[in-house]
Design goal:
Number of helices: 11
Radius of gyration: 22 Å
Organism: Deinococcus oregonensis
Strand content: 15-25%
Distance between the termini: 61 Å
CATH topology of the largest domain: FAD/NAD(P)-binding domain
CATH superfamily of the largest domain: FAD/NAD(P)-binding domain
Shape: globular
InterPro entries: FAD/NAD-bd_sf, HdrA-like
Number of strands: 23
Bound molecules: flavin-adenine dinucleotide
Pfam family, one: FAD_oxidored
GO molecular function, one term: oxidoreductase activity
EC number: 1.-.-.-
C-alpha cells in the first residue's frame, strides 16, 4: 500500500506587513516594538498567549547583570522596560543599584502595552509553520539569495499565509531561518546542548524567617524582599549539608543538588522563584518535541521533590506550595544560525570590537553542562575580558543568516560558537539585538525591498544611540 501525505491547503491573507516577527519572546517582543516605533507595520506572531518568551513563560525572572566600568551595557528599550516595571511595582532596585529583577506577569503586560502603544499588532496562540520562499535559480547548482515572502502559520483558524517584507526570526531556535535554508550548528562539539531547566515558584513562604535562616547560614541577604540563595554540590555552599540530609532522607535525588538557586520576585511578596531543577541529560535538545515533553514531565517531578525538601528543611517554607510550574521549559541553547559573522570564544576573551557592532557584552561564558554537576565559568586566566571595565561587541552580521536576504535572527540563536552563545544569550543582550533587528527590519522594508544587508550600520548605530542605546 502506498501512503501519500495530504496536501494541506492554506489561504493567503490579503494584508501584508512590513515586518513579521516570528516569536514574541525576549528578543522578538522588543524587536516588534522597535520596528513599530520606526514606522513599520508590524505583526508579532507568538505561540503562547503572552509576550516575553523565556523571560516570562519560562519564568527567568532576573535579567542577568551586564555591567562594565559601572555602566549597564544594554540601554535603550531595556531602560524603558525596567522603568515601566518599577513604576507598576513589578521591578525593583536593590541597595547595590541592581535593577534587574522583575515580576514576569508584569513583564507580559508591559511588553504588550509597549507594542500596542507603538502601533504594532500581535497574533497569539499561533505557531509559525514554514516560510514561503521566493528566489531565483541562477544555475542547476546555485540559487541566488532567496527571500521569504510570507509565513505559513497554524492556529484555530487553520493554516494561513501571512505576507511580509522582512522577517525577524526570534523563535530562539531559528525555526524560520533554518526552514528557509540557512545553515546552523547545535550543541557542543558532540552536539550536546546546554541543560534545560524547568523553573518554578514557591508561594506562601515566610520570607522574613527564611531570610534570617539564610543569614544564619552565612548566605548574606539584603532583605526579605531581595534574597538570593544557592547550592551546587562541591561549590562551598553552606546549604550543602542540608541537601545531603535531604538525599539521605530520600526526599531528594542526588542530581537535585547539581544546581539549586532561589530569588525573591519584586511585586510578589511571600514567593520565591527557583532557577532549577536541571533536567536529566537525556533530554537536552529543546528543538526536539519529545525532549521538550520529557523535560516538562521530568521537571515537574523534580519540582515536587524540591518543594518537599524546602518544606522540611528550610525554615520559613513549612507552609509553602508550588505557585507555578513554568508553562515553558527553560531552553538555553538549540540551533545557532551560520551568519555572515560567527562570534567565537576568542572574540570574547580578546574583547574584540566591530565596526558594525550592535551590542556590548561583559557577561561571561556560562555553560550549564548536562554532562555533570559542574557549572563551567571560564573566568580563569588573564584574558583582558575579565577586567571589570572590559566588554566585547556583537556585530550586526551575527544576526544575518546566510542564504536568505530578508531575515534577521536576534536572540539566543544568533550566529556564535557554543561557548560564545553561552555568554551573549542573557536577556538584556537579546533585548538589544532585538532592538537593532527591529529598526533594521523597518528600514529594510521601507527603503531596500527587504534587503537587510543594504542597511548602513553606522546610521543604525546612530539611531540606537539616539534612542538611548549604548553601542
Ligand atoms: C533556565 C534558564 C535560566 C536562565 N537564566 C537567565 C538569567 O538569570 N538572566 C538572564 O538574563 N538570562 C538567563 N537565561 C537566558 C535567557 O533567558 C534566554 O537566553 C533568552 O531569554 C532567550 O531569548 P530569545 O528571545 O532568544 O528566545 P525566547 O525568549 O525563548 O523567545 C522565543 C519566543 O518564540 C516563540 N516561538 C518559538 N517558536 C515559535 C514558532 N514556531 N511560532 C511562534 N512562536 C514561536 C516562543 O513561544 C517564545 O515566546 C536563562 C535561560 C534559561 C533557559
Amino acid at each position: 500500500m502506498t501512503l501519500s501525505a495530504p496536501t494541506l491547503p492554506y489561504r493567503t491573507l490579503e494584508r501584508q506587513w512590513d515586518v513579521l516577527v516570528a516569536g514574541g519572546g525576549t528578543a522578538g517582543a522588543v524587536a516588534g516594538i522597535a520596528a513599530a516605533r520606526s514606522g513599520a507595520s508590524v505583526l508579532v506572531i507568538e505561540a503562547f498567549g503572552s509576550l516575553g518568551g523565556t523571560g516570562t513563560n519560562a519564568w527567568v525572572t532576573p535579567l542577568m547583570r551586564n555591567v562594565s566600568g559601572g555602566h549597564n551595557l544594554n540601554r535603550g528599550l531595556t531602560d524603558e522596560l525596567k522603568a515601566r516595571l518599577i513604576a507598576r511595582g513589578d521591578g525593583g532596585i536593590d541597595k547595590g543599584g541592581n535593577d534587574n529583577w522583575f515580576n514576569p506577569e508584569g513583564m507580559k503586560v508591559v511588553l504588550e502595552q509597549m507594542l500596542l502603544e507603538s502601533g504594532g499588532e500581535v497574533l497569539y496562540h499561533t505557531h509559525v509553520v514554514a516560510p514561503v520562499m521566493q528566489g531565483q535559480q541562477v544555475s542547476a547548482r546555485h540559487v541566488s539569495a532567496q527571500h521569504v515572502s510570507a509565513l505559513v502559520v497554524h492556529n484555530k483558524g487553520g493554516l494561513q499565509a501571512l505576507p511580509g517584507r522582512v522577517v525577524i526570526d526570534s523563535t530562539g531556535d531559528a525555526d524560520v531561518a533554518v526552514a528557509a535554508g540557512a545553515g546552523f550548528h547545535g550543541g557542543d562539539a558532540d552536539g550536546i546542548h546546554q541543560a534545560m531547566s524547568l523553573r518554578f515558584t514557591l508561594a506562601g513562604v515566610d520570607t522574613a524567617r527564611l531570610c534570617s535562616f539564610l543569614r544564619s547560614q552565612g548566605q548574606g541577604q539584603e532583605s526579605p524582599d531581595f534574597m538570593h540563595f544557592w547550592m551546587v554540590w562541591g561549590k562551598g555552599s553552606t546549604l550543602e549539608g542540608l541537601f545531603r540530609q535531604g538525599v539521605e532522607a530520600g526526599v531528594l535525588q542526588e542530581r537535585d543538588g547539581d544546581y539549586f538557586q532561589g530569588f525573591s520576585v519584586p511585586g510578589r511578596p511571600g514567593e520565591i522563584s527557583f532557577n532549577c531543577p536541571r533536567i536529566r541529560a537525556e533530554y537536552n535538545d529543546g528543538a526536539n518535541p519529545w525532549h521538550l515533553t520529557g523535560a516538562q514531565i521530568d521537571g515537574r517531578e523534580a519540582v515536587d521533590r524540591l518543594t518537599a525538601f524546602c518544606r522540611a528543611f528550610l525554615p520559613g517554607c513549612e507552609s509553602a506550595f508550588v505557585g507555578t510550574y513554568a508553562p515553558m521549559v527553560g531552553v538555553r541553547e538549540t540551533r545557532r544560525i551560520v551568519g555572515d559573522y560567527t562570534l567565537t570564544l576568542e572574540d570574547i576573551l580578546d574583547c574584540r570590537t566591530f565596526a558594525d557592532s550592535i551590542c556590548r557584552n561583559h557577561y561571561p561564558v556560562d555553560i550549564h553542562s548536562p554532562r555533570g554537576a559542574k557549572l563551567i565559568h571560564e573566568r580563569e586566566g588573564s584574558a583582558p575580558y575579565f577586567a571589570p571595565d572590559a566588554f566585547h561587541e556583537i556585530p550586526y552580521r551575527a544576526i544575518l543568516p546566510q542564504q536568505v536576504s530578508n531575515v534577521l535572527v536576534p536572540g539566543r540563536a544568533a550566529s556564535s560558537s557554543f561557548e560564545a552563545q553561552s555568554a551573549i544569550r542573557v536577556q538584556q543582550n537579546c533585548h538589544t539585538m532585538g532592538e537593532a533587528a527591529g529598526i533594521a527590519a523597518a528600514w529594510a522594508a521601507r527603503d531596500f525591498g527587504g534587503d537587510v544587508r543594504a542597511i548602513d550600520v553606522a546610521v543604525l548605530q546612530a539611531e540606537m544611540r539616539a534612542r538611548g542605546g549604548y553601542v
